[in-house]
């Protein structure tokens, strides 16, 4: 049984007028559901009118305590100016990253899947300037394993002056920005991945941190 949004049940069986389907899982709060759906034909109308059927659902779904994919926040690195910008849904998988940069990092945006498998977009965080967009579209088996860069003073404010991304496929994206100032590196342990970001920003991106989860 599947709708357009929200948690879904996954069923298995053949299409019959009367019979049963096995509940074999689902998404969201129904992720570990098991059971049976019984189908009974109540009324056969004309070909144009279709059928009236009765569905009886008998299923068990354990309540999972805490998020299914717990994440850890690391950072931020950079300055303390600007406004904090963060996501509201915990990320499960990072899908794309878009960077705008000139002398410094102007802004960042990204898309990700949340714990329910819904696609989310964040940003553009920071200012409206910079060259770009420089977009990274991650492959299905590709995850970000390291973010590095530099931060320094630009127009009297501490700002991210360059950024670079490395993935598990030994691909390097960037660096973007001139790269003056102190260096920072955010690696993750084997078996983990960077799945999202949070920042401080104003006219430019002034600090950046990451969300990490175990794969």
TrEMBL record:
A GO cellular component entry from the record: apoplast
PROSITE patterns reported for this sequence: JACALIN_LECTIN
Q: Which UniProt keywords apply?
A: Apoplast, Lectin, Secreted
Where can this protein be found?
Answer: Secreted, Extracellular space, Apoplast
Please give the SMART domains that the UniProt record associates with this protein: Jacalin
Instruction: List each copy of the Jacalin-type lectin domain by range.
Output: 71-214
* SUPFAM superfamilies in the cross-refs: Mannose-binding lectins (SSF51101)
* Gene Ontology molecular-function annotations: carbohydrate binding
Similarity comment: Belongs to the plant dirigent protein family.
Oligomer and partners: Homodimer.
**What's this protein's function?**
Dirigent proteins impart stereoselectivity on the phenoxy radical-coupling reaction, yielding optically active lignans from two molecules of coniferyl alcohol in the biosynthesis of lignans, flavonolignans, and alkaloids and thus plays a central role in plant secondary metabolism.
Q: What is this protein called?
A: Dirigent protein
Taxon lineage:
Eukaryota, Viridiplantae, Streptophyta, Embryophyta, Tracheophyta
């Amino acid at each position: 049984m599947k709708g357009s949004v929200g948690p879904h049940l996954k069923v298995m069986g053949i299409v019959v007028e009367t019979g049963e389907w096995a509940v074999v899982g689902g998404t969201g709060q129904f992720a570990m559901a098991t059971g049976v759906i019984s189908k009974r034909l109540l009324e056969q109308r004309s070909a144009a009118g279709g059928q009236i059927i009765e569905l009886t659902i008998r299923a068990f779904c354990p309540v999972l305590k805490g998020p299914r994919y717990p994440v850890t926040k690391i950072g931020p690195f950079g300055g303390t100016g600007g406004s904090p910008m963060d996501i509201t849904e915990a990320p499960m998988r990072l899908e794309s990253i878009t960077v705008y940069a000139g002398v410094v990092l102007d802004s960042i945006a990204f898309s990700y899947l949340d714990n329910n498998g819904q696609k989310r977009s964040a940003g553009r965080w920071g200012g409206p300037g910079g060259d770009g967009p420089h977009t990274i579209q991650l492959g299905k088996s590709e995850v970000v394993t390291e973010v590095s860069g530099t931060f320094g003073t630009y127009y009297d404010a501490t700002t991210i002056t360059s950024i670079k991304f490395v993935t598990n496929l030994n691909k390097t994206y960037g660096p973007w920005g001139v790269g003056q100032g102190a260096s920072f590196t955010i690696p993750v342990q084997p078996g983990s991945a960077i799945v999202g970001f949070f920042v401080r920003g104003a006219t430019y991106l002034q600090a950046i941190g990451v969300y990490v989860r175990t794969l």
